[in-house]
Structures are given as structure tokens and as C-alpha cells.
Specification:
The protein has 2 helices and 23 strands. By secondary structure, the chain is mostly beta strands. It is flat, with a radius of gyration of 21 Å.
Length: about 290
């Protein structure tokens, strides 16, 4: 699915009020004769001032990120003892509702960070707030980190380059609209999305795991590192499962059906990862 179409789908999901899912905000008014009418306005993204925080990182700390609305970009290259985050607040409202959007961000958006025992970065909303309220997050991890990574996107696109360290585990969930694009995953894998899911694994675990795209719009891609020991049990509903175009000598493929295949790789036993998607599944060898 074209990314611009996906972005349109995200906008629809962020729509507000009675017409949630249509990409507009509606309100009751009266026409020139005094008759009641419903007026709908297309959504505009109003942005607030960015906010940044620096968190003290101790080797082995778990990194927990919780979003609600907005895209998340995680990348490496920070100081060895520090995680940094920049929040970009926004509210999606009808074009004449700028004052309400500012009020949304000032009164109902909650940005939280904490570095006591683990790194916590969280965006949440007050209970009765606009569905279009949220914040993008840009997060920089230190090179060489070893803590587990636990990200709950909420609703939005995730790009995560985790290759600067070796995560003890990689947990990423997104039950809203938006692709997951992850590189450098390691440890036990628990990755769930509703749109496209792409996972590049840096170190294959000896633990069982899962990578799934549960929605009807998603293709799924998994890249296995060279020299890995383990297996993938892959299925899809509407398409086919495809393996490496050139099968490595230490790989075997067992096909139950075009949409159900098991790949075993390496010379020793390793973790089995269950992989499934609504559309297609592609397995690559590093």
C-alpha cells in the first residue's frame, strides 16, 4: 500500500467527534433561514512548542516508550550515559478550531519522562480529550546500550534503529494505524502491528517469539542475520510466504502450502519465531 495512502488512513483515524474516521470535524449550526445544519471542516494539524528532556541511562536499564497519537523515531548515536527525547505536540482539528487545538495541548496533553530504575518516555491524554491530540517523539539512544526495548506506539508510524546496541529483548506493539520499521532487533521478539511490519534482526535469540501484522493492510518482512540458529514458522491469509531468493546452505524450507512455510537455519537449535500477516510474508537472509 502506498505510504501516502497510509498517511491518509492515519489522518482518518485521528479524526474527531461524531465523524471519527472521515477526516473532518463537524459541529451544529444554522443556515441563513435559521434551520439547523451540520457543518464539517477538514482537519488541520496544529502544532505546539517542542519540548525536550535528557534522561540518565545506566547500563542495562529497560527503555519504555508509550505513545497514544503520533509518529515515533528512535535512533542511536547519543552519549553513553544518556537518552534524549524531543516531543512535538499537535492537535488535529477543523481549520477554524485553532483556539480549541491550543487548549487541547495546554490542558489535556501529558508528557512524562522518568529515569528512576528504567527509562520511561510517555505521551498520554486527559480522560475526556480530543481524539486528534498527541505528540510525535524523536528519541536518541546511547551506542552500546543493553537494556530491553519496550515500545507501545498507540497510533502512528514507528521507525526504530536499534543497531547501536544489543537489546535484551525487543517488544513493539501498535494497535492503531501506522507501519513498524525496525532494524537491529535482538533478544526475545514480541512485535505486533496492524499495517506493514518490517523487522531486521541483528542477533537471533534462543527464545520463542512472534512478529505479526494483524490488520488487513499489512505486508510483513523479516531479515535474519547470517550465522543465526533458529527457525521461523510463517503464514499469511491472502498472499504467499517467500523465502530468500538464494537459499543459504544452512537453511531448509518446509512448505505446507504457498501461504504456510517453515524455515530452519543454522547448525544448532535456536528460538522459533511465529510470523504471520494478512497479506504477504517475505523472509530474507542476511
Amino acid at each position: 500500500m502506498n505510504k501516502f495512502l497510509r498517511l491518509a488512513s492515519v489522518t482518518a483515524v485521528l479524526a474527531y467527534g461524531m465523524v471519527l474516521g472521515t477526516g473532518c470535524e463537524c459541529y451544529q449550526s444554522t443556515d441563513a433561514e435559521g434551520n439547523p445544519e451540520t457543518v464539517c471542516e477538514s482537519l488541520v494539524r496544529f502544532e505546539g512548542a517542542t519540548q525536550s528532556a535528557q534522561l540518565a541511562y545506566n547500563q542495562g536499564d529497560e527503555i519504555v516508550v508509550k505513545g497514544i497519537n503520533g509518529n515515533i523515531d528512535v535512533h542511536r548515536g547519543g552519549a553513553a550515559d544518556q537518552v534524549t527525547v524531543t516531543f512535538q505536540p499537535f492537535s488535529m482539528r477543523g481549520h477554524s478550531f485553532e483556539d480549541d487545538a491550543v487548549k487541547d495541548m495546554d490542558e489535556d496533553l501529558v508528557l512524562q519522562t522518568d529515569d528512576q530504575g528504567r527509562i520511561l518516555i510517555q505521551v498520554s491524554r486527559a480522560g475526556d480529550s480530543s481524539n486528534g491530540l498527541g505528540a510525535d517523539m524523536d528519541i536518541t539512544l546511547p551506542d552500546g546500550y543493553t537494556g530491553g526495548v519496550n515500545i507501545d506506539v498507540g497510533n502512528g508510524f514507528l521507525t526504530a534503529d536499534l543497531s547501536g546496541g544489543t537489546p535484551a529483548f525487543t517488544t513493539v506493539h501498535n494497535d492503531g494505524a501506522g507501519d513498524l520499521d525496525i532494524t537491529g532487533a535482538a533478544g526475545k521478539l514480541d512485535i505486533l502491528g496492524d499495517f506493514d511490519v518490517s523487522v531486521g534482526v541483528a542477533a537471533w535469540s534462543d527464545q520463542a517469539g512472534q512478529i505479526r501484522s494483524n490488520g488487513n493492510l499489512g505486508d510483513l518482512t523479516v531479515s535474519v542475520p547470517a550465522g543465526a540458529n533458529g527457525s521461523i514458522q510463517a503464514t499469511c491469509q491472502d498472499g504467499e510466504v517467500t523465502g530468500p531468493s538464494s537459499m543459504p546452505s544452512d537453511w531448509t524450507e518446509n512448505e505446507a502450502a504457498p501461504n504456510s512455510k517453515t524455515y530452519t537455519f543454522g547448525v544448532e537449535a535456536g528460538g522459533n519465531v511465529v510470523v504471520d500477516a494478512a497479506k504477504s510474508v517475505a523472509i530474507h537472509a542476511g
